[in-house]
Every structure is written in C-alpha cells, then in structure tokens.
Design a protein that fits this description.
The protein is α+β, with helices and mostly antiparallel strands and 86 residues long. The chain has three helices and five strands; from the N terminus they run βββββααα. A hairpin with a 5-residue loop joins strand 3 and strand 4.
C-alpha cells in the first residue's frame, strides 16, 4: 500500500488562489521594518506568498494583500524589489 506524498500549498495574497509552495515567492518579515525575498522558503520569520507572475504582484499591491498579511504599511522599495525579482 503506497501513500501519496502531500504537496504543501499556500494562498497567494494577490489572486487568492491556493498553489503549490514551490511555485510561489515568499516575502519574509525579519524585523520591524525589514522585508526580504526568501528564495529557499526556510528562513525564520513571518512570511506571505505571491504567485510568480506580474499580474498577481500588481493585484497584491492594489488590494493591499501584503499589508493585510503583515498588519502594517509596506514601503514602496519592497514592491520594487519584488518587481525586479520577477
């Protein structure tokens, strides 16, 4: 009897769809005002996920998805770094 391995899924803060964790970008809050893009998905801290498409990033900016997830105002430079990584 074989068991299928579960694939972890996460919710995109832009489009609201559940997708596999490996296909998404993790934005990580490591201190009060510092955000980084976690490419490994293993660093400690509060994280939020965005699909790796420009449309989802623009939706997350317009609907304040990251701000709701982190419960704080996000600087424009964080969004600029996300645009560069896509």
């Amino acid at each position: 009897m074989s068991t299928a391995k579960k694939i972890p899924v996460r919710l995109c803060v832009g489009c609201g769809e559940m997708k596999p964790k490996k296909e998404m970008i993790r934005v990580l809050k490591i201190s009060d005002d510092e955000f980084i893009i976690d490419k490994t998905g293993r660093k400690n801290g509060r994280g939020a996920y965005i699909c790796s498409s420009k449309e989802c990033l623009e939706k997350a900016i317009s609907n304040h998805g990251l701000e709701r997830s982190f419960k704080m105002k996000i600087d424009k430079e964080v969004y600029d770094r996300l645009r560069e990584s896509l």
